[in-house]
Specification:
The chain is mainly alpha-helical and 198 residues long. Helices cover 43% and strands 10% of the residues. It is built from 6 helices and 4 strands, in the order H-E-E-H-H-H-E-E-H-H. The strands form 2 sheets. It has a two-stranded antiparallel ribbon with strand order 1-2. A two-stranded parallel ribbon has the order 3-4. Helix 1 runs antiparallel to helix 3 and helix 1 packs antiparallel against helix 4.
Length: 198
């Protein structure tokens, strides 16, 4: 009952509350990105698989510019990450626009992190079960190692969450996420990779 009904309602209400509370911070971030990203835009949209593998567009703050060399090729990722972009990533602020994905019903506050569509065909039948629930802004794998554990272990934790999803577990994950963000624990400032961060 919780996984199929109450979780969706709680996600919607909490997302609205969080957006209302954090609106001043989001406004400041938007202004900083506008002036620092050299016309690259404020938001980054990318296709990701959601529940049952259905593709949707995830929304994040854009932390890299679109600067190119004289031949028109994008500069290396590490050269395009702005100083404000590094800070936004290290504090996980870049994930906050995904609250709009939650309001739309594409994502949940808690669930397996959505990866890139091209990896769908690489999952075995057990790993593919991570798509039995809506993907989350944070999840069981994120509070149990995040970037410090192997992808195989992440998939194991994702499937474990699918099988044990409950209100109390979601509350625990939210509290652990807040703790990890405040401590900046297991955060790696990636410049692109398996999850296609920008």
């Amino acid at each position: 009952m919780y996984k199929c009904f109450w979780k969706l309602i709680i996600d919607f209400i909490l997302s609205l509350l969080i957006l209302a509370i954090l609106f001043p911070i989001l406004l400041v971030v938007i202004m900083c990105l506008y002036f620092s990203d050299k016309d690259a835009g404020i938001f980054f949209y990318q296709e990701r698989p959601g529940k049952d593998g259905k593709i949707f567009k995830v929304i994040k703050f854009k932390t890299m510019t679109d600067e190119r060399d004289i031949e028109g090729n994008l500069l290396p990722n590490e050269q395009r990450v702005t100083s404000i972009g590094r800070f936004i990533r290290s504090t996980s602020i870049d994930e906050l626009p995904q609250l709009f994905n939650v309001l739309k019903g594409d994502m949940s506050l808690i669930g397996p992190r959505p990866l890139l569509p091209r990896y769908l065909e690489l999952y075995n039948s057990e790993q593919a079960r991570r798509h039995d629930v809506r993907p989350g802004i944070t999840g069981w794998a994120q509070v149990n190692g995040r970037n410090a554990i192997s992808w195989t272990r992440k998939f194991e934790l994702d499937v474990w969450y699918v099988d044990h999803c409950s209100f109390l577990l979601d509350v625990k994950i939210i509290l652990l996420t807040i703790k990890n963000v405040l401590q900046r624990k297991n955060v790696v400032i990636s410049t692109g990779g398996f999850d296609g961060t920008n």
